[in-house]
Design goal:
It is built from one helix and four strands; from the N terminus they run E-E-E-E-H. The protein is of the alpha+beta class. The protein has one domain: Ribosomal Protein L24e, Chain: T. Strands 1-2 form a two-stranded antiparallel sheet. A two-stranded antiparallel sheet has the order 3-4. A hairpin with a 2-residue loop joins strand 3 and strand 4. The relative contact order is 0.27.
Length: 59
């Protein structure tokens, strides 16, 4: 799984917890997209999470 090139956000780990309180392992994956973004005056294709993408469009 790729990481965000801006903030470094990657997958984190936790548990699914059932009604009977049995915990099984799971992965929380960030919503990472491959986008073409203007970086230092050059267009680059980077992996970027949607939170960072939203922040870039708000500037």
């Amino acid at each position: 799984m790729a990481k965000c090139d801006i903030c470094g956000k990657g997958p984190t780990f936790g548990h699914n917890v059932s009604h009977s309180k049995v915990a099984t392992n799971r992965i929380f994956r960030p919503n990472i997209q491959r986008k073409r973004v203007l970086v230092n005056g050059k267009w680059q294709r980077i992996y970027i999470c949607t939170r960072c993408l939203r922040t870039l469009t708000r500037e």
